[in-house]
Design brief:
heterotrimer; B: mainly alpha; Ferritin; 10 helices; 65% helix; C: alpha+beta
Chain lengths: 321, 252, 94
């Protein structure tokens, strides 16, 4: 029987149609998606911390407003993604448990600290830029709810990237101290941003399967190259240099060549030894623990006031059956 | 006689309230009890920041010394800030934060509802937009007050404790202020004294439904409108202002 | 008692003349908070927007391709899999 179901599933993929929540799907497809979507959601949530770090100290009211809006959007994106993930039959509370216990991860870029105001610009420009490169591709992924969440997210994200570039550009054209601040931030965020795309595909054993399932539409290296080609001219426009002596235009390839990425650092940070890993998790788990009494109060209140989810409404649905 | 300084000073009071409150609420980002609450509180902070910018810009314009919203926000000292003390409290407990939001947004709602009829076009316009926002803020605080007050034993206790810590600072919101009263008599501002009955009415109703008790606390001495603040404001401003002050004249 | 706030499906009508469209889901302890959370998340508090929230458990669903005998012929839940699904341990790195 499963061969018929598999054939149906494969046919949907082959004709580039969407797999929806009620469709049959291989267990491995579903497990892969749960992990990928959940980790994407966790990244948005954890990402609120390095950026939120500078809300209180934003040096103008306009920048403060832009930053609060950005961080708020990130919380929202996390919620859209948890929402998409739950259509696969998991509960958000369980996903958060997996995050808190370290069994699910978040994008390692957020294990780096925001040491100056310019870091906020670098994150908007480079980190969000890298994320967008990845996310545009995901708008065409095979799983419907994930693809739709990505469309909604992409609409909101390009604004943030532009704001980040504008912030950095303003600094780069400002006082000597501001210029130095901007360049220092770029020097620290450039390589980690390139690492966001993941290791080269020959070191990524699961890439092939993800491509076959149309969860992954392009290789890590393809997306990384796309990002580099877009960003290098932008850096020049902002009057900033990139910390790679081997960076140069390759006329033959029609792309920029970059130097060697330090993958040892990448694995080091992914495996917990980055500057902020512990701090990010502590802040996250502390918010969760300290908020327990509040969440429980809301549940208790709902129970007291007869608001069981479905209690009132069920009778109307039942009448229609 | 209605002077420019009077109007400027009034706008600055309301703007400082909103600015300091926005700064406090933004501290909850990535610390809220649930992700939906991170979104809600950030939303409220953003609304208040918008009110602050409009009011501070206007204050600077009317003042006529060329001070922008940023000049006023980042380059005034503690003694020049005219916000109510209730806004500067660092409410670390969620119950306390909700108690403060209930009290302050309730005050802002009564204020803006009347201020939208001001003879001053700008103040009227700011108030007309703000009243819709603070109606939502007050509703948010109300929903939480009900759920925490009438939730679990622990939430009831913590919500009540939060109210007790915040309540001494509520009296200041309704104190007579001669400059404000002159403007109010001229139809441009709202006399804060007039707001107390409606505010108390609303809050009493919410606390009763939430099974909470109106705290019998002595009023704190106050003085925020005259630039006499709690020790907390200094630290808040130190964090908020330091980067701008490190690079005076820089563009951001 | 569920340790999580229950899940609600959100439908949004962005203007008069249109119909409500499924926007996604929110967690909330009750209907009133669900409406407010939905308003914050899916409309960013635009005015003139109408929102419906429905407990996910109350939604009854069917699918176009249901010839699978393993499905009960009667309508089923919106999400095919039971919510006590066991999340498998690591399948792949992101």
């Amino acid at each position: 029987m499963e061969s018929g179901l598999t054939a149906g599933f494969e046919r949907l993929l082959a004709t580039d149609q969407r797999i929806e929540p009620r469709d049959w799907m291989p267990e491995a497809y579903r497990a892969t998606l749960i992990r990928q979507i959940a980790q994407h959601a966790h990244s948005e949530i954890i990402g609120m911390q390095p950026e939120g770090n500078w809300i209180g100290r934003a040096p103008s009211l306009r920048r403060k407003a832009i930053l609060i809006a950005k961080v708020q959007d990130e919380a929202g994106h996390g919620l859209y993604l948890y929402s998409a993930c739950e259509t696969l039959g998991v509960q958000r509370a369980d996903l958060l448990d997996l995050l808190h216990s370290g069994q699910q991860k978040y994008s390692s870029i957020f294990n780096y600290p925001t040491l100056s105001w310019a870091d906020i610009g670098a994150i908007g420009w480079l980190v969000d830029g890298a994320a967008i490169t990845n996310q545009v591709a995901l708008c065409h992924c095979s799983y419907g709810p994930y693809a739709r969440a990505m469309v909604r997210i992409c609409k909101e994200e390009s604004f943030h990237q532009r704001q980040g570039f504008d912030l950095l550009s303003t600094l780069a054209h400002g006082t000597p101290a501001q210029r130095a601040m901007a360049q220092d931030a770029v020097d620290r965020w450039w390589w980690p941003s390139l690492m966001m795309f993941g290791p080269p595909d020959d070191a990524s054993p699961h890439s092939a399967q993800s491509m076959a399932w149309r969860i992954k539409r392009h290789s890590n290296d393809e997306l990384r190259q796309k990002f580099v080609d877009i960003v290098v001219p932008q850096a020049a426009a902002a009057g900033l240099t990139l910390p790679d002596p081997e960076l140069r235009w390759n006329e033959e390839r029609g792309h920029y060549d970059i130097g060697a990425i330090d993958w040892a650092e990448f694995w080091h940070v992914v495996n917990g030894a980055g500057p902020c890993n512990r701090q990010r998790m502590e802040r996250r788990t502390r918010a969760h623990e300290e908020g327990r009494w509040v969440r429980e109060a809301a549940v208790a209140h709902a129970a007291k006031h007869g608001e069981r989810s479905g209690a009132g409404q069920a009778s109307r649905a039942g009448a229609a059956a | 006689m209605i002077t420019q300084p009077a109007i400027s000073g009034y706008a600055l009071q309301l703007g400082d309230d909103a600015l300091v409150m926005a700064q406090r609420l933004a501290e909850w980002v990535s610390r809220a009890p649930e992700l939906e609450e991170d979104v809600a509180l950030a939303n409220i902070a953003l609304d208040l920041l918008g009110q602050a910018r409009a009011l501070l810009s206007y204050a600077g314009e009317v003042e006529g010394r060329g001070r922008t919203e940023d000049d006023l926000a980042y380059f005034r000292d503690e003694r020049e800030f005219s916000n109510l003390q209730i806004t500067e409290l660092g409410c670390r407990d969620f119950g306390e934060a909700i108690a403060r939001l209930l009290a302050f947004s309730g005050y802002q709602f009564e204020l803006y509802q009347r201020l939208q009829h001001s003879r001053d076009e700008i103040l009227a316009a700011v108030a007309a937009k703000a009243v819709k926002e603070v109606a939502y803020h007050r509703d948010h605080a109300t929903q939480w007050t009900l759920r925490l007050g009438d939730g679990t034993e622990e939430s009831h206790r913590r919500m009540q404790a939060g109210l007790v810590r915040v309540w001494p600072y509520t009296d200041e919101m309704f104190r007579a202020d001669p400059a404000g009263q002159a403007l109010a008599a001229d139809g441009r501002a709202v006399d804060a004294v007039d707001l107390r009955p409606a505010w108390a009415d609303y809050v009493t109703g919410v606390l009763r439904e939430a099974t909470l008790t109106w705290p019998e606390t002595a009023a704190a001495p106050g003085g925020g409108r005259q630039g006499r603040h709690t020790e907390q404001l200094g630290h808040l401003l130190a964090e908020m202002q330091y980067l701008a002050r490190c690079h005076p004249g820089a563009r951001w | 008692m569920s340790r999580d706030w229950p899940l609600w499906e959100v439908f949004v009508r962005s203007r008069r003349g249109l119909s409500h469209i499924h926007a996604g889901s929110v967690h909330a302890p009750d209907a009133q908070m669900a409406l407010r959370n939905a308003r914050d998340l899916y409309t960013r508090r635009q005015e003139g927007v109408s929102i419906w929230v429905v407990p996910s458990a109350a939604v009854t669903a069917s699918s176009p391709d249901e010839k699978d005998p393993f499905f009960a012929p009667a309508a089923d839940k919106a999400y095919r899999h039971p919510t006590f699904y066991d999340i498998p341990s690591e399948v792949q790195h992101l």
